[in-house]
């Protein structure tokens, strides 16, 4: 089964775009750089879109103690899970977890 089939909708299931918001605090830049170097090789196999990877986002209100913001979208939650739970991503994510403390949020898109 390929990544696209794994993310296929079940009959009667509505597809809603999901957004992944990641806020990172670097703890080991070398480990994070190893993750980052392999990220696109894995990511491009799935139906995600990298919307932003910003190490200097403008803080307009409040305080922010992180070093990087990443924003991705996937056609639906199944597509996100197919990527995030794939053996390839689980393997490279070890370096992400070793290299940065992360807050990872999954938000459903608005479906009128």
From TrEMBL:
It comes from the Bacteria. Pfam families: DUF1330 (PF07045). Residues 17-109 form the DUF1330 domain. This is DUF1330 domain-containing protein.
């Amino acid at each position: 089964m390929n990544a696209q089939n794994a993310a296929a909708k079940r009959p009667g299931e509505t597809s809603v775009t999901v957004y992944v918001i990641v806020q990172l605090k670097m703890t080991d830049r070398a480990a994070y750089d190893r993750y980052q170097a392999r990220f696109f090789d894995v990511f491009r196999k799935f139906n995600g879109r990298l919307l932003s990877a910003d190490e200097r986002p403008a803080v307009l209100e409040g305080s922010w103690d992180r070093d990087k913001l990443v924003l991705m979208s996937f056609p639906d939650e199944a597509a996100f899970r197919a990527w995030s739970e794939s053996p390839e991503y689980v393997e490279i994510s070890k370096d992400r977890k070793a290299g940065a403390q992360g807050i990872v949020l999954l938000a459903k898109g608005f479906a009128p």
